[in-house]
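hey m, so remember when u said the tokens were messed up on ur end? i reran from scratch. heres the input so u can diff it against urs
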Amino acid sequence: MIGLGTIVNTIAIIIGSLIGMIIKGGLKQKYQDILMQALGLATMFIGLSGAMAGMLNVSDGTIETQGSMLLIGSLVFGAIVGEWIDIELRLEQLGEWLQSKVKIKNDSHFVEGFVTASLVVCIGAMAIVGALQDGLQGDPSTLFAKSILDFVIVMIFASTLGIGVAFSALPIFVYEGGITLFATFISPFLTQTVISNLSFVGSVLIFGVGINLCFGKKIKVGNFLPAMIIPFFFH
């Protein structure tokens, strides 16, 4: 069944978030705070490992760097365009609209949970590759594996940021579902090199999410999302 991977991933995020909410109810504030720091550190190193995998190349026993111009160009373009559109603000407004529709009041972390979790689960190669495999071959295995990872990630997010995390299921459903639906049309543009570069740039953005989790909102990660367009033109 084409699209099964997206459905399973969406359900995994919802269930993981609900379990995280149950855990949150039994945690004192000091444990929620330390979990937030732990999650921030983990997110930073997940992003860092992906970035280093894209930038470092071992040739004849020598470590060489690559992709520096791609990274600089992507981030500069993303910063200018994203700040002009103010994507971060749009994401926050979407989160506020969702919060008003579900009538959840007195939840100061709702918008933060929605935006942060949406960025983490949507950015990355597994979402793209898995959705393409599902759409072209009817093979949801990669998205099944991603579902397990997302389940754990959102469970921890929800244990500190609350129910807003569960609503990250909406953008992942649209994002992965859209790629699956139009896989035949977009697959010629998503070569292995392009996907690797997308993963590389996306990992840097995930690192930025980790910084925000550890130290408060220091980087408008949402405003850097247009950076994900540059690998197509670079290739």
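this time it looks ok to me. The first helix runs from residue 4 to 25. if urs says something different then somethings off w ur setup not the seq
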